[in-house]
């Protein structure tokens, strides 16, 4: 049996700055990144303007390992 752990780093609005840092420090490659504003709209949960440029989800590949980096929605712990 193979077991793989995928770390998920949740930040408070600075994921766009952190991703290039991890690219350089860990020789990571961004394979996916999406902001809250690029996600499909949900009329029951509209995205506040101040959150639209935050990273909702990103996937970085580091060799055979994967790292997720995202921002929390404003006001979330």
What can you tell me about this protein's structure?
By secondary structure, the protein is α+β, with helices and mostly antiparallel strands. Helix content is 16%, strand content 34%. Strands 1-4-3-2 form a 4-stranded mixed beta sheet, with helices on one face. A hairpin with a 2-residue loop joins β3 and β4 (65-71). The longest helix is centred in the N-terminal third of the chain and has 12 residues, at 15-26. It starts with 7 loop residues before the first strand and ends in a 6-residue tail after the last strand. The relative contact order is 0.31.
Helix-residue proportion: 10-25%
Largest sheet: 4 strands, mixed
Oligomeric state of this protein: single chain
Strand content: 25-35%
Mean pLDDT: 93
C-alpha termini separation: 35 Å
Q: Would you report the number of β strands? A: 4
The succession of helices and strands, N to C, reads EHEEE
Shape: globular
Please tally the helical runs, counting DSSP H or I stretches of 4 or more residues: 1
Give the strand order, joined by hyphens, for the main sheet. 1-4-3-2
Spatial extent as radius of gyration: 14 Å
* Class from secondary-structure proportions: alpha+beta
Give unreliable regions as ranges. none
Q: Mind sketching the topology for me?
A:
Elements: E1 8-11, H1 15-26, E2 29-35, E3 55-62, E4 65-71
Features:
alpha+beta; 4 strands; four-stranded mixed beta sheet; 77 residues
In a nutshell, what does this entry contain?
The protein is an alpha+beta fold and 77 residues long. The chain has one helix at 15-26, and strands spanning 8-11, 29-35, 55-62, 65-71. A four-stranded mixed β-sheet has the order 1-4-3-2, with helices on one face.
